Structures are given as C-alpha cells and as structure tokens.
Amino acid sequence: MRAVLDGYEAAARPELIARFDALRPGEIYAPVIDLFPAAAARVADIGAGTGRDAAWFAARGHQVLAVEPVRALREAAMRLHDAPQIEWLDDRLPELEAAQARGPFELVTVSAVWQHLDDDARPLAMASLAAMAPPGGLVVLSLRHGPGAAGRQVFPASPDDAIGTARGCGLELVRRSQAASVQASNRASGVHWTWLALQRVR
After folding, report:
1. β strands within the chain, DSSP E
2. Hey, which end of the chain has fewer CB within 10 Å, N or C?
3. Cα R_g (the chain), whole angstroms
4. CB 158 within 8 A of CB 202
5. Percentage of the residues of the chain whose pLDDT score is greater than 90
6. What are 77's strand-pairing partners?
7. Nearest by Cα to 127 from 93, 174, 160
8. Which residue has the higher pLDDT, 119 or 9?
9. How confident is the model over 52-74, as pLDDT tens digits?
10. Kindly report the CA angle at 77 between 103 and 190, in degrees rounded to 5?
11. Cα 172 to the chain's mean position, in Å?
C-alpha cells in the first residue's frame, strides 16, 4: 500500500486533481445512490481524494469524515472544499484505527480504493469497515476490473470473494451491480466496476 500512496503523491499534480474533482458523484454512485440515507447522517468517505464526494455528501446535509492518506490530495481537498460539515483525517486502510475511533457512521463509502489492497490486506480492511458501521449501517464498495494507472498498482478484485469476506465480518449483501467507468479513457482501456452495498447485521 505504501507504494500505491507514493504513486498518488507523485501524480497529484493540478491537472490530475482538476480531472478527479470534475467527475460527478451522482453519476459515479448511480448504481447505489437510492440506498443512501435520505435524512442527515454521519458518512465516512474512505480514500476521499480531492474531497469531491465528501463535499457532495456535505451539500446534502450529512456530516462527513473524509479519510485521505495522501498528503498532496488531502491538502488540495481542504482548499477546494472548505465546509464545516467535513472533518479531514489522515488515516489509511487496512487498519483505519483513527477513523474507527470516530464512528459509528450510517454510511461508509470506499470508492475506487479496494483494488489497491492485496489479498492479505482485504480481510483486515473489511473488518475495519464493518467496525465503523452500526447495525443497519451501510458499507458501499466499488471494485475495479481492468488495468490501473502507471505507478498505482491494482490487484484483481473478485466480487464473490469480497462478499464472502464481508459476510464473515457481519455484513450482508444488499445489492451487487455492474457499471461502466464514468471516465472515457478508462472505458477505452476496458475498465469497469462492480458495486457492492453491504449492510451491517451483527
């Protein structure tokens, strides 16, 4: 994971930050958006990047913990999205110790992150995410299929494996959905996604 974070740090130039921040959360989360809390809730955005999604949740009345371990991205996010409803945190998967201490959260999102964790890290990461949600809370993961960017290694992400790991952590599948990448360059490279919505049942 350290090498992946270093890769993002090196790539976090203004043009990449602008490109990431311009993506539309409503389009990204379309496969699961109807499951999100309608009333004001506590949301943890794991791997918050430029703060795009955190700001979108905050604008909808939620209190957001934006967790981003890459300093250059986190600092850019704080400049771009300076909202009182957002708390910024330097923490990382798989442990998320500081983030867990701030829970629980009705919604935990892990968008475009899971593919950077290897098979050894994923069970601990799933347990950490489950620990952040109360009974009835929702953990939402996107699993990338296809090549990654240079310098930011990705590992194959099996939806069945993720669902099985989640079940062992007290998370039951609510929805599994396939989606094309919202970025044209990714679609051209064969990138697509599986979205999993997992509910904490114990």
Report:
1. 42-46, 63-67, 86-89, 107-110, 138-145, 171-180, 192-200
2. C
3. 15
4. no
5. 85
6. none
7. 93
8. 119
9. 999 999 999 999 999 999 999 99
10. 90
11. 18
Q: How many domains in the chain?
A: 1
User: Domain of 23?
Assistant: 2-200
How far is Cα of residue 48 from the mean position of the Cα atoms in its chain?
Answer: 7
For residue 25, what are its two tokens? 């959360």
Q: Which two tokens stand for residue 108?
A: 């935990």
Full DSSP string of 42-92 = EEEEET-TTSHHHHHHHHTT-EEEEE---HHHHHHHHHH---TTEEEE---
- pLDDT one-digit tens code per residue, 83-121: 999 999 999 999 999 999 999 999 999 999 999 999 999
Q: Which of 48, 55, 86 is nearest to 69 (CA)?
A: 48
Residue 78 is part of a domain; what is its CATH number?
A: 3.40.50.150
Exposed / middle / buried, residue 167 (Cβ in 10 Å: 0-12, 13-18, 19+): middle
The closest alpha carbon to 142, from 175, 113, 170, belongs to 113
Check residue 79 and give its pLDDT. Answer: 95
